[in-house]
Specification:
Blueprint: H1 3-19, H2 24-91, E1 95-97, E2 102-104, H3 117-127, H4 142-150
Antiparallel strand pairs: 1-2
């Protein structure tokens, strides 16, 4: 019997009880059978959930390890690029060509360095060139707000709401 079928049986029993046409012993036997089946189904579902969560955690752990390895490889590659670039510049080489690779030392590009952000903001606002600056929206710190609300503080624009029940499996 599927879990949703057990729910349907409960509804059928409820209708029988509401109609008043039932045998007490039959109802008790049926309720016990349904309850045992439901508990077994829920237990099996809980085991499946545990297994899936465990597998997901193992995958996440492996992802973290792989990300760390990838970061280390990228850092090593970046250090080697800088080393090759410095050596080519030191030796005056603009291009090295072999059967497997062509390595070029390009011209240096200009980059922007901001040494006084307040002055830049003032310039952008006073000159009307607001596209030079972007602003991000404020982000509420919900954990801190929740703690204050739970302590009885009133915070305009914020309230505690009852969330959905959680399912705990140990």
């Amino acid at each position: 019997m599927k879990l949703y079928e057990i729910g349907e049986k409960y509804l059928a029993l409820q209708r029988m009880l509401e109609d008043g046409d039932y045998d007490a012993d039959a109802i008790n036997d049926t309720l016990e059978a349904i309850e045992t089946a439901a508990e077994d189904k829920i237990d099996n579902i809980a085991c499946l959930i545990k297994s899936m969560e465990s597998e997901a955690n193992a995958i996440q752990s492996e992802i973290k390890k792989l990300e760390a390895r990838a970061k280390a490889k990228n850092n090593s590659a970046e250090r080697l690029k800088n080393y090759a670039k410095d050596q080519m510049a030191l030796l005056g080489l603009e291009k090295v060509e072999t059967a497997r690779n062509v390595v070029r030392l390009g011209a240096a590009r200009d980059r922007v360095a901001i040494d006084d952000l307040d002055a830049l903001i003032h310039y952008a606002e006073s000159s009307g060139e607001n596209d030079l600056i972007t602003y991000s929206a404020p982000e509420p710190r919900k954990k801190l707000i929740a703690a204050k609300l739970k302590n009885g503080e009133t915070i305009p624009g914020a309230k505690l709401e009852k969330g959905d029940p959680t399912l705990t499996i140990r």
